[in-house]
Amino acid sequence: MPKTLFDKIWEKHVVKEVPDGPSVLYIDKHFIHEVTSPQAFKGIENRGLKVFRPQQVVATADHNVPTIQQHLPIKDELSRKQVQQLVENCRQHNIELYGLGHPFQGIVHVIGPELGITQPGITIVCGDSHTSTHGAFGSIAFGIGTSEVEMVFASQCLLQKKPKQMRITVNGQLNKGVVSKDLILYVIAHISASGATGHFVEYAGNAIQSLSMEARMTICNMSIEMGAKGGMIAPDEITFEYLKGRLFAPANQQWDKKIFQWKKLFTDEDAVFDKELVINASEIEPMITYGTNPGLGITVSSQVPVAESIPDENERRNIVKALEYMGLEQGKQLLGMPVQHIFIGSCTNSRIEDLRMVASVIKGRRKSEHVKVMIVPGSQQVAAQVKAEGLDRIFEEAGFAIRQPGCSACLGMNEDKIPAGEYCISTSNRNFEGRQGPGARTLLASPLTAAASAITGVVTDIRQFLS
Amino acid sequence: MIIMKAFTILHSRFVPLPIENVDTDQIVPARFLKATTRDGFGKHLFCDWRFDAAGNTKQDFVLNNHSYEGQILVAGKNFGCGSSREHAAWALADYGFRAVVSSFFADIFRSNALNNGILPVQVNDEFLDKIFQCSVSSTLTINLEEQSICNNESGEVANFYIDPYKKSCMLNGYDDIDYLLSLREEIAQFEQNAIERRMEEVHN
Q1: Got the DSSP string for B100-140?
Q2: Rounded to the nearest 5 degrees, what angle is found at the Cα of B108, between the Cα atoms of A169 and B176?
Q3: Largest CB tally within 10 Å, which of A363, A434, B33, B129?
Q4: Residue B163 to residue A21, Cβ atoms within 8 A
C-alpha cells in the first residue's frame, strides 16, 4: 500500500497499540525550555523517578531571558528563579543544557536544527507549539503540554492517536519580494486559523522544494497557526547539504548510512491524504495581518475587510471585535499607516538568512525617526554569524537595536514588550490580543516587509523598494 | 496512582463565552507563566478580559457578571488555539471549570484538558448556538458514560466523541503515566529492536 512520508516515520515509532485506544509513540528527541518543564520535573520527582532517557533530552533557556546584559543576573525575580530551576533540574537529571552564557544558547527551535540535532525520519517533541518547525527536515515534530513532557521524561513515549493527514502543494515560482513567510501567511489566510486542526500537514510541490532549509523552517513553524498538529517537508539534497558537518549530524561512515535511510523518506506516488490543497506560488503577494489571529491576513496593498460584506454572522462578529482591538477602520488600506515598532526575531524569522534579508533592504539607509526597531538573533551562533558577516554594522548604522538571543518581544513574557495601543510590524508568528504585551497591536509580516517599513515608518510594500 | 478527580455526570449551570478562536494567550497571558508549580492559576484566567490595565474589573466580561456561574464553560469554535501552555487548562481547573463545551477544540488544548480532568465536549454549531440562546439560570447535564450532553432548557440531547481509552481514564481519574511506566521494559526492547532494524536496512 502506498504510504505518506508521515506514515513511514510514524510506523517506525509505534511501540504498541493500546486496544481501542491510542498508539504508544516512541520519541527520539525531546527539547525542553524553562517555562513548560518545571512542573513536569516535579511530577516525576514526586513519583520517585529519574528521567528515563536523559541523553535524548536537550535543554535551553529562551522564553524568559532578557535580551540585553545577559551576563548579569536576571532582574525579574520570578524569571530568574524559573531559569535557575531549569539549571538545577538539568543537573539533577543529567540533561545537556545550553543555558544563558553557553555559546549554543538560543531559541529552542533555532538551536535544534543549527546544531544538527534535528534530523530526518525522527520523532521530536517539546513543550512548545512551534516544535512544528523541525518538520522542515522530514521529521515528525509537534508541541505538547506539560503533562506530556512528564510522560516523555518518564518513558520516552507518548500516547497518541494518529492524526489525519493533509497535503499542501505549492507549485510555480514566488514573485519578487515574496518569501516563505508570505507563503505561509497566505495559506493560513486561505484556510483559517483552524483549517488544519486534527491534521498533520505535508508541504510539497516545486515551490517548496526550491526553498532553503531556513525558509522551509519558517513555513513548518507556522503550521500550528492553522491548527495543524505539525508540518513536514520531505528531505532532499538541500536538507542533506544543510546538515552536513553540523555538530551533532552523523559523520563519516555514519553519514553515508543515514543518507541511505533518509533518501527513502518521501510520500509514495499514490498515497492518499484526507485533505489536499493546491496553490500556485505566483498568486502570492507580500502579506500582512490586520486582525487578532494569524488567519486574518491580507496582501499588503489590499483593504481591511468590511464587516457587512461577510455573510457568516459569527465571522462578522469576530472581525468587528478584532478590528476594534486593533484600532483599525473597516475597508481601510494598511499601506502607509504609521507604526511605532518593528520586531525582527522569534522562532519564525530570526535565522541568519532572515537577518541577511533585512540587511539587504536597509543597507546604507536609516530607520525612520518615528519607529523603534528591535532585531533579535535566534541564537548565540546566529549572533556570532551576524558579526562575522559585518551585518551588525549595517543594523547599527540604520539605527536598529541589536539584542541578544531569546524569544524576546514575540510573547510579552520577558522584558521586551510593545506598549498598549501601539502598532508593531513583527516577523513573529502570533498577533493574538496582548501577545506582545497587554494592549499591543501586532501586524505579522515577512522580514522584508518589516525591514522596508522600518525605513519608512509606515506599512510598506517591499516591492516599491525593489524596483 | 489516581491523580485526577473522576468524571462521571456533571449537572451544572454554565458560563457562556460566545467568542471564536479563544487562544491560550487569552486564557492565561504569557507574563503569568513564570511559576514553577501548577497551583493558583485560576486568578489569572482570562486576566486581560477580566481586568483593565489598572486592575479594575471589566463589568462587561461574562466572568464578572455574577448572574452566570457553574462548572461548565461554553465557548465559540476553535477554543484553546495557539500556544501549547498547559497553564490554560490549570487555570480553568483552578477556577472551578470541569468541562468546556465548544463546536471545535484545538488539538493541544484538548489533550491538556483531558490530562487535567477537564472534559472537552464537542457539539455541532447548531447545538452550541441553542445553548447560547438559553436563559441565564439554565443548566446542562454532561454524562460521560453515555457520552451525552443535555440542554435542560430545550430538552435537546447530543452525543459527543471521546477516545475510549481517554474515557476510561476520565471515568476513573487515571492519568497516562502509570500505564507508560508499566511499559518501560517493552520500550527498552523496542529501542533495542530499532537499532537492529536500522542496521539490517543499511546492509540489505
Answers
A1: EEES-B-HHHHHHHHTTTPEEEE--HHHHHHHHTS-TT-EE
A2: 125
A3: A434
A4: yes
C-alpha grid cell, residue B165: 481509552
CA distance A359 to chain B (A): 30
Name the grid cell of A425.
510590524
Let me know whether B31 and B99 are in one domain: yes
Which residue, A434, A455, A278, A426, is CA-closest to A364?
A455
d(Cα A47, Cα A110) in Å, to the nearest integer? 33
**CB burial class (10 A; 0-12, 13-18, 19+) of residue A94?**
exposed
* pTM score, whole prediction: 0.97
Residue A399 grid cell: 539605527
Q: Which residues of B, range 140-169, sit inside 8 Å of A by Cβ?
A: 163-166
**Boundaries of domain holding B204:** 175-204
- The answer as to whether B3 is a domain residue is no
- The single residue listed with the C-alpha cell 505579522 is A444
**ipTM for this model:** 0.96
Give A78-134 pLDDT, tens digit per residue.
999 999 999 999 999 999 999 999 999 999 999 999 999 999 999 999 999 999 999
What 3-state DSSP class applies to A279?
strand
